[in-house]
């Protein structure tokens, strides 16, 4: 019999709703269903006495085919209920219908099959016999099953990998939901089936066996969700019945049907009794399972509980959406595991999305708002994104909830290097600053200086300037692109703000603001034409859809049509401002040049060429001149009809520049005359212009080599040549040689290969002699750059047998050979190379989402080419450092996409079998040893290293990376942004390696006496350690979480008594026996010392 404590909280009837009741039945006639409405009156509460078992119908054939429910449908003979669900080949509805038929024939046999289903879903190979079911209590059965549990492996169906098990969890959950739905009109009220199942799941959820606890908690939470849905339907039905009764009673006596009134009263009474039964069941699950398991040692179990309570509050808000249930979500937001914090946020998003529920969330919001704001800086990317999205929903509910300081902590994240975080912050910024319109803005035009968009563009400029990150306008535009794309594409309004005179009373833009607006305008044009994020945010080129390609072409056409006319005017206005002109001159690179002809815009092209010429004549800044050069290069495209016109203008300009340079040079080099500063300036300015153009254009026909040779030769002979003239003359000569080599190499690309290779080898040798570590870092950086280029060309799903990847791997092999055979000399350099390679491999998350390999994981295949250069003891250290970036799930993966990680780990374990052990074997051995509680001789453990081995002064990472107690659970790389970080504030384990900080003697001097043994000390600087190290615990474990800090400040003003689930009150409530007392202490929930500092730094 389900136990339930006295219910002390009263609820009002739920509000009216149009939700339709399920038409599913327990395979019985609808008329029969309506007559009795699901109450089995003949059953006895609780488990029957042994002699009474089987009175429900003997063994007259079972719907599942034989003892223990062996399923025989579709040729699948002798299959248990677990096997049928696992295979997933039969519809869940038909499986449940077969079980219901079996239950009606002999409920003991069917129930035994259901019990074994839950036992087998936990991975236990034992089975509950009919004899055990008749004579043993649940606790005895669970103890017996624990003894028969397979101790050789920690795997069970919910954690197993492979295609067969991928869908098992969803099938398992679906089976429970369908079972309750199909039984909701009769069987769940027979006071036998549900009582037995809930009692079993409650007992299993309290087991020390992780598999039992995890599986039964999931089953109990899904069972609770299904019951909540039944309770909601009952509430709706009661409301409908009450309205029908009131309508009938209000009729005049002549038209009133007394028999109908009595029928409605009887129906309402039965509905109330059913609701009381469901209420008691939910109380038993909530108090027996939820209040204990939501603080379980395993993160997955805690996450399940929080996810489901969010469903209950959203589904049946009248009963569950109050502070007594919200407090569990609020407390768990301090969980140390990102997965659990993430479930809290997604649960809350479902509640805040419905504005009708906002009034019920006011106390919760005031209590936990600061925590939600701090989670926007969470170290886990996914958590930070969802926290920002939740704050955006809070912003929707009320503008007064979040203070200016709260908002500012989110604003700066638009410059984060992690794009999902930046996009979420951009949406928050847009909703806060741009989505509110005052009454005075309603009648404003759509575009132009006086338009609504004009005001919003000004607001964007003001925000950009206040952020003091002016060189990162592309990041701001990318963050706002998805939510404010229409605003950022309003180039007419931007041009109007730059060219039109301000209206009377309107404040004009300052020079600084105009510069910022031009930069934002350029970044928006680039984003529209290139359709990919700025450097540091993207994961390679993405294939555009047909719709995206059409939008890209339309935007490019519109940009050309607008700026072909406006750009000459803008250049004329700002021609003396180097910064503005440099940005404006980049615009033609994004033009569709054909439109100059088709749109009859040739006169505007002529105007543009004149303005560019004037800019060249006015400026000597390198950035401006190179921008002019690149503009000519973009316009001089032989594919378009405007080529001849632009080529003539370019040739005329260069003719004048070269003639001027030769004339000035002749006067400058006259013998016997001392050149003055004015002559030197004229030569330098002209030479700068020519050099800038020579970078992008072949000027061989002007024979500049002779002039530059004379200039440099005179400087060598006299020794009085100005430094800047020498620099630019050498640079110009450099371009001359490059253009000449380019022409020569067109006919023979391999002519100079051997000589070039010898030069490179000698260069590498010299650099290694100068600094071995920096040389190694340069080699690994070059491999990373080649790898990134390959990703850009081939995409993230490239073939590892492709020529590009094999070429990079072959280069890595050759790099490895250059380190020679003396491993001691190159020890530090090789270790540093592996460190940088590992960090690069785990730097970017998978674009496919969580659970997939990191984007650069395949780089470990390349890095493995250097594993043979590591000393044996260094392989162990590198292996430990690798595991800092791995999660426990990664260690279990065996799919092809994880082969680079597997092969790299194997390369680090080769030759060091006594130093390194696999994560899995280590995990299993620890689990088994603790489960069996048998003392083992010391000789059976890992061989201890000789004293001093791996602790020499040459060792790498000896200060920190060897002090890792549980290397499997390590944090993901931090978010990066565009804010410089003070080096003095770096955390200890983020500093440079910690390798040369102290000698081994100094290390031993600083350690307390008890740490001078061979055991590995705890690293107290580690970040991201799990709650109770949840994924490293053995199968038999302490199943309750511990905490270090108390949350008494969160308890103030909240009702912390365990909440009874009290649906609308009933006069015919049937009391059940008491649950065991709830020992829940609300002050010992979660540790709020979770690392939430999102370290931001410039890429």
Indicate the topology:
Blueprint: H1 30-36, H2 81-87, H3 92-105, H4 107-121, H5 130-135, H6 138-147, H7 163-166, H8 168-183, H9 193-205, H10 210-249, H11 258-293, H12 299-315, H13 317-320, H14 323-332, H15 338-352, H16 362-375, H17 381-397, H18 404-411, H19 419-433, H20 452-466, H21 473-488, H22 491-499, H23 511-530, H24 546-573, H25 578-584, H26 594-598, H27 602-618, H28 622-635, H29 643-668, H30 677-696, H31 704-718, H32 723-745, H33 753-770, H34 772-794, H35 803-817, H36 827-841, H37 859-863, H38 872-883, H39 888-892, H40 899-909, H41 919-932, H42 1000-1006, H43 1048-1051
Helix pairs in contact: 3-4, 3-8, 4-9, 8-10, 9-10, 9-11, 10-11, 10-12, 12-14, 12-15, 15-17, 16-17, 17-19, 19-21, 20-21, 20-23, 21-23, 22-23, 22-24, 23-24, 23-25, 24-27, 25-28, 28-30, 29-30, 30-32, 31-32, 33-34, 34-35, 34-36, 36-38
Number of helical segments with 4 or more residues? 43
**For the report, how would you describe the main beta sheet?**
none
Helix-strand category = mainly alpha
The end-to-end distance, rounded to whole angstroms, is 63 Å
Q: State Rg.
A: 37 Å
Number of DSSP E strands: 0
Poorly predicted ranges: 1-77, 912-1058, 1064-1099
Mean pLDDT: 76
- Give the overall shape, derived from the CA principal axes: globular
Tell me the strand percentage band. Answer: under 5%
Give helix % range: 55-70%
Family: Belongs to the SCC3 family.
Biased composition (Polar residues): 12-24
Subunit structure: Part of the cohesin complex which is composed of a heterodimer between a SMC1 protein (SMC1A or SMC1B) and SMC3, which are attached via their hinge domain, and RAD21 which link them at their heads, and one STAG protein.
Pfam families: HEAT_SCC3-SA, SCD, STAG
């Amino acid at each position: 019999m389900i136990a339930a404590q006295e219910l002390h909280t009263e609820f009002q009837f739920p509000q009216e709703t149009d939700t339709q009741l399920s038409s599913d039945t327990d395979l019985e006639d609808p008329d029969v269903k309506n007559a009795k409405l699901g109450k089995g009156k003949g059953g006895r509460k609780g488990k029957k006495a042994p002699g009474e078992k089987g009175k429900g119908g003997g063994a007259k054939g079972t719907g599942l085919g034989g003892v223990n429910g062996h399923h025989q449908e579709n040729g699948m003979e002798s299959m248990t209920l677990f096997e049928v669900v696992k295979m997933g080949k039969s519809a869940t509805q038909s499986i449940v219908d077969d079980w219901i038929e079996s239950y009606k024939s002999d409920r003991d046999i069917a129930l035994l099959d259901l019990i074994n289903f839950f036992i087998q879903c936990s991975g236990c190979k034992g089975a509950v016999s009919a004899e055990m079911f008749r004579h043993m209590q649940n606790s005895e059965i669970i103890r017996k099953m624990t003894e028969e549990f397979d101790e050789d492996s920690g795997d069970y169906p919910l954690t197993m990998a492979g295609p067969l098990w991928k869908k098992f969890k969803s099938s398992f959950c679906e089976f429970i939901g369908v079972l309750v739905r199909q039984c909701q009109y009769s069987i769940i009220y027979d006071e036998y089936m549900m009582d037995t199942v809930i009692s079993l799941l409650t007992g299993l959820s309290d087991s020390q066996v992780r598999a039992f606890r995890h599986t039964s908690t999931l089953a109990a939470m899904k069972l609770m969700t299904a019951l909540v849905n039944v309770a909601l339907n009952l509430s709706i039905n009661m409301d409908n019945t009450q309205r029908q009764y009131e309508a009938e009673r209000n009729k005049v006596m002549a038209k009133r049907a007394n028999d109908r009134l009595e029928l409605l009263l009887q129906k309402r009474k039965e509905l109330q009794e059913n609701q009381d039964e469901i209420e008691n069941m939910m109380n038993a699950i909530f108090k027996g399972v939820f209040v204990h398991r939501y603080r379980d040692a395993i993160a997955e179990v805690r996450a399940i509980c929080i996810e489901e309570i969010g469903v209950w509050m959203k589904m049946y808000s009248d009963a569950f959406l109050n502070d007594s249930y919200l407090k569990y979500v609020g407390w768990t937001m301090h969980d140390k595991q990102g997965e659990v914090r993430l479930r809290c946020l997604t649960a809350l998003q479902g509640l805040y999305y419905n504005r009708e529920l906002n009034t019920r969330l006011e106390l919760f919001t005031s209590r936990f708002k600061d925590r939600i704001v701090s989670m926007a800086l969470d170290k886990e990317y996914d958590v930070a994104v969802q926290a920002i999205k939740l704050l955006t929903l809070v912003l929707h509910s009320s503008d007064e909830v979040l203070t200016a300081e709260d908002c500012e902590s989110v604003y700066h994240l638009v410059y984060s290097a992690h794009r999902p975080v930046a996009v979420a912050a951009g949406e928050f910024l847009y909703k806060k600053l741009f989505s509110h319109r005052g009454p005075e803005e309603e009648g404003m035009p759509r575009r132009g200086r006086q338009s609504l968009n004009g005001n919003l563009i000004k607001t964007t400029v003001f925000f950009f300037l206040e952020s003091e990150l002016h060189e990162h306008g592309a990041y701001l535009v990318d963050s706002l692109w998805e939510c404010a794309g229409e605003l950022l594409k309003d180039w007419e309004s931007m041009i109007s703000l730059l060219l039109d005179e301000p209206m009377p009373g309107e404040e004009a833009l300052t020079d600084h603001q105009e510069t910022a607006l031009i930069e934002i305008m350029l970044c928006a044009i680039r984003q529209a034409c290139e359709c990919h994020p700025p450097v540091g945010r993207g994961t390679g080129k993405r294939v555009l859809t047909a719709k995206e390609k059409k939008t890209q072409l339309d935007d490019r056409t519109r940009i050309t049509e607008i700026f072909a006319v406006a750009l000459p005017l803008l250049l004329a206005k700002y021609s003396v401002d180097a910064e503005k002109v440099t940005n404006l001159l980049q615009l033609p690179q994004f033009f569709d040049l054909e439109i100059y002809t088709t749109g009859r815009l040739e006169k505007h092209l002529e105007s543009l060429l004149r303005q560019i010429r004037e800019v060249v004549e006015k400026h000597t800044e390198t950035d401006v001149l190179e921008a002019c050069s690149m503009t000519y290069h973009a316009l001089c495209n032989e594919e378009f009809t405007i080529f001849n016109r632009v080529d003539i203008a370019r040739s005329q300009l260069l003719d004048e520049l070269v003639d001027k340079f030769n004339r000035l040079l002749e006067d400058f080099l006259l013998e016997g005359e001392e050149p003055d500063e004015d002559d030197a300036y004229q030569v330098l300015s002209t030479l700068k212009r020519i050099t800038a153009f020579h970078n992008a254009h072949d000027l061989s026909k002007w024979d500049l080599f002779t002039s530059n040779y004379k200039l440099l030769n005179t400087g060598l002979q006299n020794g009085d040549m100005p430094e800047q003239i020498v620099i630019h003359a050498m640079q110009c000569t450099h371009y001359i040689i490059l253009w000449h080599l380019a022409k020569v190499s067109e006919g023979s690309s391999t002519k100079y290969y051997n000589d070039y290779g010898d030069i490179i080898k000698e260069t590498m040798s010299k650099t290694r002699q100068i600094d071995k570590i920096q040389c190694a870092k340069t080699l690994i950086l070059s491999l990373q750059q080649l790898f990134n280029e390959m990703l850009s060309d081939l995409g993230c799903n490239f073939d590892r047998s492709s020529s590009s990847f094999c070429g990079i791997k072959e280069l890595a092999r050759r790099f490895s050979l250059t380190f020679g055979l003396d491993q001691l000399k190159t020890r530090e350099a090789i270790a540093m190379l592996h460190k940088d390679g590992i960090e690069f491999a785990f730097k970017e998350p998978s674009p496919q989402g969580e659970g997939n390999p990191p984007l650069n994981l395949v780089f470990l295949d390349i890095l493995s080419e250097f594993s043979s250069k590591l000393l044996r003891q260094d392989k162990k250290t590198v292996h430990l450092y690798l595991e800092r970036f791995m999660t426990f799930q990664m260690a279990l993966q065996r799919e092809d996409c994880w082969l680079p990680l597997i092969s790299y780990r194997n390369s680090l374990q080769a030759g060091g079998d006594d130093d390194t052990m696999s994560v899995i074997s280590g995990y299993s051995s620890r689990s088994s040893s603790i489960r069996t509680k048998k003392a083992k001789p010391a000789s059976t453990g890992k061989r201890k290293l000789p004293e001093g081995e791996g602790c020499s002064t040459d060792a790498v990472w000896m200060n920190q990376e060897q002090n890792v107690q549980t290397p499997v659970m390590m944090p993901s790389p931090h978010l990066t942004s565009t804010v410089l970080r003070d080096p003095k504030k770096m955390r200890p384990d983020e500093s440079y390696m910690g390798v040369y900080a102290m000698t081994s003697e100094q290390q031993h001097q600083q350690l307390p006496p008890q740490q001078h043994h061979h055991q590995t000390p705890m690293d107290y600087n580690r970040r991201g350690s799990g709650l109770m190290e949840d994924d490293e615990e053995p199968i038999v474990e302490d199943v309750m979480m511990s905490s270090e800090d108390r949350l008494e400040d969160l308890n103030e003003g909240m009702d912390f008594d365990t909440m009874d689930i009290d649906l609308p009150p009933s006069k015919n409530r049937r009391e059940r026996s008491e649950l065991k007392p709830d020992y829940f202490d609300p002050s010992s929930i979660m540790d709020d010392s979770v690392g939430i500092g999102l370290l931001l730094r410039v890429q």
